[in-house]
Amino acid sequence: MTQTPLLRVRNLAKAFGGTRAVDHVNFELPAGRVQALIGPNGAGKTTLFNLLTGHLRADSGSVIFREKEILGLPPHAVWRRGISRTFQVPAIFENLTLLENVQVALRSHERRLLRPLPLAQAPTRAAELVAAVQLCEPLQAPAYSLAYGNRKRLELAIALANEPALLLLDEPTAGLAPSERARLMQLVHTIATRQSITILFTEHDMDVVFEQAHYVFVMHQGSLIEQGTPEEVRANRRVQEVYLGEAESGSV
Ligand SMILES: Nc1ncnc2c1ncn2[C@@H]1O[C@H](COP(=O)(O)OP(=O)(O)O)[C@@H](O)[C@H]1O
Ligand SMILES: [Mg+2]
């Protein structure tokens, strides 16, 4: 018996003028895997995420999530259906505290479930989420005071407050030191496994990709050119050429 995929994308397309940023892409995500989306700068990864989450309007295509069409829904509606995301540049409320940032996300999630947490419990749940992402800063610290790596962790806690079925992470480790990258993605992997969250993440650090992903999609010039296990993708000639070409043009 084949399992119904969590997400099914068909002929998804978006052009900016003459640039085919996402060029009739087809793929499926089964539930419960950690999957990477890789490809050189400008391949269309962020645009693809923006189409999936309603941050951009597609030119055509279909996105079926949990067996329902979500293309055309605004971002908050996609979030409510159970897709959380983080951004290449962390999106947090600068002037709120750590705790308040997570509480805002929790409140929005609880409203959706029509079972608001008792007020006394809300800070506890928010504090648990902050602890779960191993963010070891005072809960009352303003978000603007956080170092870059901790901002990424806070954004992750906000995404998890939504109890997503699918979590899209756009370059979650960009700007972090290599050792911190591996640690953050290990944490994401552990949380995803424990909470049965399906992950799709973009990443430039191939060590992180090959260590953490069960399955890898490769995007180039708006198209998905290959997919497979990390071993299959690493051994693939076409993928090697795409990355080699990028290295030769000096854009890595
Ligand atoms: N808002 C936009 N307006 C015009 N062109 C864009 C816009 N966003 C992305 N692009 C173009 O679409 C292509 C894909 O970009 P992007 O999705 O950001 O790639 P990636 O995330 O893989 O680096 C690039 O050629 C980029 O210049
Ligand atoms: Mg990008």
Report on the architecture of this protein:
The chain is α/β, with parallel strands linked by helices and 252 residues long. Among the domains are: 1-30 and 56-76, no CATH class; 89-164, no CATH class. Helix content is 39%, strand content 24%. The protein is built from 9 helices and 10 strands. The protein has helices at 45-52, 75-81, 98-113, 122-132, 148-161, 178-195, 206-212, 230-235, 237-248; strands spanning 7-16, 19-29, 34-38, 60-65, 68-69, 83-86, 166-170, 198-202, 215-220, 223-228. The strands form 2 sheets. A 6-stranded mixed sheet has the order 6-7-8-3-9-10, sandwiched between helices. A 4-stranded antiparallel sheet has the order 2-1-4-5, with helices on one face. A hairpin with a 2-residue loop joins strand 1 (7-16) and strand 2 (19-29). Helix 3 crosses helix 4 (122-132), helix 3 (98-113) runs parallel beside helix 5 (148-161) and helix 4 crosses helix 5 (148-161). The longest helix has 18 residues, at 178-195. The N and C termini lie far apart (43 Å). Residues 45-46, 88 line the site of magnesium ion. The site of magnesium ion has 3 residues, from helix 1.
